[in-house]
Amino acid sequence: MSTAKSVASEIQRACLELALKADAGRFETLALALRMAALAAAEAAETVTAGDDKQALVAPLIGLWDFDVATGKVVSDKVFAEFYGVDAHAAAAGAPLADYLAAIHPQDLDRVSAAIDTAIATGDDFVEEYRVRRRDGTVSWVIARGKCWRDDAGRPLHFPGAVVDISKFRRIRAA
Prior knowledge:
The protein is of the alpha+beta class. The chain has eight helices and seven strands, in the order αααββααβααββββα. It has helices at residues 3-24, 28-47, 54-58, 78-84, 88-93, 97-101, 106-122, 167-174; strands at 63-68, 73-76, 95-96, 126-133, 139-146, 149-150, 156-165. Strands 1, 2, 3, 4, 5, 6 and 7 form a seven-stranded antiparallel β-sheet that branches. Strand 4 (126-133) and strand 5 form a beta hairpin. The longest helix is centred in the first third of the chain and has 22 residues, at 3-24. It starts with a helix and ends with a helix. The mean pLDDT is 81.
């Protein structure tokens, strides 16, 4: 099996494993999104050739962020930056949270902003499903999950998390 195919297979296995854990924790939407990511990885494994880039397999599946609460900067990978239309170099260095929030659909922005504030204030898990407007004008549905970590004095430090594009799942569910 090519390295790219083995990476796709490993992503599929990991997504399915996480989906089972999400089901057990009653995070049904997250579990469904992870199953969709597993399906995308399975499709990639079927179509990949030996010369394909491993990063191209991972790219459409999941994006990662780490929000530094004290500075208000979000460091993210290229996938997360692309979801929100943020320059990848700026994202890697740390872009203002406002740059990411600007891409959230206006009908979802207040709810998502309030959920972020609540997660920072309480330390509760952040799990939200919402729309983002991409640079090309298309609207995608994503599910995001994160948790704000605190120092020993209880002050919020970092808020890492992940986002999965669930647009395909939403279209299937609506049909």
